[in-house]
Amino acid sequence: MIFTPVIYIENKRYTLKSGVRNIWDYATFNNKKIEIHNLSCSGCKKVSAAILIDPQGRILIARRNYGKHKGVWEFPGGKLEGKENPDIAIIREIKEELDIDANYPLLFDISMQGKIVLYSFFLKLTKKDISSTDHDKTKLLYPHEIYRYPLLELDKKVTDHIMEIIKEGYDIKWKHAEDRT
């Protein structure tokens, strides 16, 4: 699918070293060991978000249809349940919200705002007809087009990071024809 050798944690950019197998135990970035599953934030709400990318490099965003953020656009996702890992949570959430079966989420960004920790993952989007239980609209947009819509603050940060790696020449499109099945 998609591979990015960088990750953002709290607005700091790290380069992923080769050989990292299970980032939920620990990961080494720029020769620093960091634990990313249990960020120290007492009482924080942990949320996973999906950066679902279609074969043309467009990203799915969805408009909330309830609550204080009604009418605001976001990357689909939701809260972690109990001691659930963020990568498991995003697979569960997009199945529940969008009826999309996904595998191999690739962690791209961890951002915090107040008492919210947002884990954002790149995922392949293979489904063409998207409907959501938690949103009244969805759109597939090229990354630079996302800014045209009112976004949640943390999703703006993630979009900034996506644009940064694209400007550096990273391609977020699918790489191989066999990935499109």
From TrEMBL:
The keyword DNA repair applies. The keyword DNA repair applies. Residues 43-164 form the Nudix hydrolase domain. It is an enzyme of class 3 (hydrolase). InterPro entries: MutT-like (IPR047127), NUDIX_hydrolase-like_dom_sf (IPR015797), NUDIX_hydrolase_CS (IPR020084), NUDIX_hydrolase_dom (IPR000086). It catalyses: 8-oxo-GTP + H2O = 8-oxo-GMP + diphosphate + H(+); 8-oxo-dGTP + H2O = 8-oxo-dGMP + diphosphate + H(+). Keywords: DNA damage, DNA repair, DNA replication, Hydrolase, Magnesium, Metal-binding, Mutator protein. Its EC number is 3.6.1.55. Its cofactor is Mg(2+). Belongs to the Nudix hydrolase family. This is 8-oxo-dGTP diphosphatase. It comes from Rarispira pelagica.
